[in-house]
Amino acid sequence: MKPRATVASDAGRTDGRNPAGGAGADVDVRRSGARAAGPPVPRPKEKRAEEPPARNGITRRLRLRRDRTLILMTLPAMALLLVFNYIPLLGNVVAFQDYDVYDLGITGSPFVGFDNFTRIFQDYRFWEVLLNTLVIFLTQLILFFPIPIAIALLLNTIMSARVRAWVQAIVYLPHFFSWVLVVTVFQQMFGGAGLVAQWLREHGHEGFDLMTNPGFFKFLVTSQAIWKDAGWGVIVFLAALAAVNTDLYEAAAVDGAGRWRRMWHVTLPALRPVIALLLVLRVGSALNLDFEQILLQRDQVGAGASEILDTYIWWTGIKTGDFGYAAAAGIFKGLFSVAMVLGANKVAHMMGEQGVYSKK
Q1: Is the pLDDT at 359 greater than 70, yes or no?
Q2: Do 156 and 238 contact (CB within 8 A), yes or no?
Q3: Which stretches of 151-297 are assigned E, i.e. beta strand?
Q4: Three-state DSSP class for 55?
Q5: What is the C-alpha separation between 189 and 195, in angstroms, rounded?
Q6: 2 burial class (0-12, 13-18, 19+ CB within 10 angstroms)?
Q7: CA-CA-CA-CA torsion for 305, 311, 315, 316, nearest 10 degrees?
Q8: Does residue 136 register a pLDDT over 80?
């Protein structure tokens, strides 16, 4: 008969237990058995291939369902934009053709490659017109662009709401006048037989005629643009001023800042992002001067002083039937404007402003 310890040891061996493990080994065996016999751990569900990835916790399908009313409201505007802005871009193919609008049309006109662009670059008159357009633009940028900012600052200082409304109405009104009416008003005021010239002659002075002075033409069109559109440009700056926190003005006044100090350190920094954005857009439209305004006064001062790119394209391209040349000049104008926007926006980023789009 074996001793009790030997029997217990043999029983432990026959049970498959680790004699050195003791009770802990039994617990490990039971745990491993429970894991083996338990239900499988469910895997996370994979996203369906057709379901777009969620952004901010909302899938594209949910966003479309949420914004379907707004999308339906924008469909007419998108249709008009497509019909009148993007589909006509296909007509730029005539810039690479010897286009005949009467007999051959777009499908029958032969392709000439970049011959129309070569004609533009070899035309010295085109470069003279381009330089004259940029000179008029720079004149308007320097003299016209600060005027809406100044008017907005003045209107912001008027405390009476009724007086401010009357001043805004008077300043905005010329925007709704046509260029024919604007040129007529300036003709009656500053022409050779205008009120100013007649008053000077009545008082023994020599009269003048600003409407036919080629050297004064760029300042003339700038003054007309200021009178017509400066009030309308005030709207954007007044909206930016309305968003300025009044606590900043009160804190500056408590610190002893006067009116000019508050304008310099509170108002102008609040307008700086808007000024940068509008300046970039204005630089991008450097070649888009008012065609009707210039065309109405072209014959009075001569083509040498008043010719801009749009009127030059009209006279040398469209009016003479050279549509390929006109289309090539239009493409050059578009590419030049895009380059100006990108360059001005780069400068805005260097100055710490967002510009048209933010810097990634």
Answers
A1: no
A2: yes
A3: none
A4: strand
A5: 5
A6: exposed
A7: 90
A8: yes
Nearest to 12 by CA among 2, 23, 1, 28: 23
Q: Are 202 and 196 in contact (CB under 8 A)?
A: no
pLDDT at 132 (0 to 100): 93
Rg over alpha carbons for the chain, rounded to the nearest Å, is 38
- Cα torsion 315, 318, 322, 325: sign: positive
pLDDT tens for 33-62 read 444 445 555 565 555 555 555 556 678 888
User: What is the identity of the amino acid at 191?
Assistant: G
> Are residues 328 and 120 in contact, defined by beta-carbon separation less than 8 angstroms?
yes
In the three-class reduction of DSSP (H, G, I as helix; E, B as strand; rest coil), residue 111 is classed as strand
Mean pLDDT of the chain: 81
Could you report the per-residue pLDDT of 7-37, keeping only the tens digit for each? 444 444 444 444 444 444 444 444 444 444 4
What is the DSSP secondary structure assignment for residue 50, as one 8-state letter? Answer: T
Give the confidence band of 185 by pLDDT, cuts at 50, 70, 90.
very high
User: Helices in 144-202 by DSSP H: which ranges?
Assistant: 146-157, 161-172, 179-190, 195-202
How far apart, in whole angstroms, are the C-alpha atoms of residue 334 and residue 340? 10
The count of residues in the chain is: 360
Q: How far is CA 138 from the centre of its chain?
A: 19
CA–CA separation, 43 and 23 (whole Å): 34
Nearest to 241 by CA among 149, 168, 161: 149
Please name every residue paired with 97 in a beta bridge, in sequence order, or none if there are none: 111
Helix (H, G, I), strand (E, B) or coil at 58: strand
Task: Measure CA 42 to chain center.
Answer: 52
pLDDT of res. 169: 87
Whose CA is closest to 291, among 179, 144, 145? 179
Indicate the pTM of the whole model. 0.75
36's CB contacts (< 8 A; 6+ apart) are none
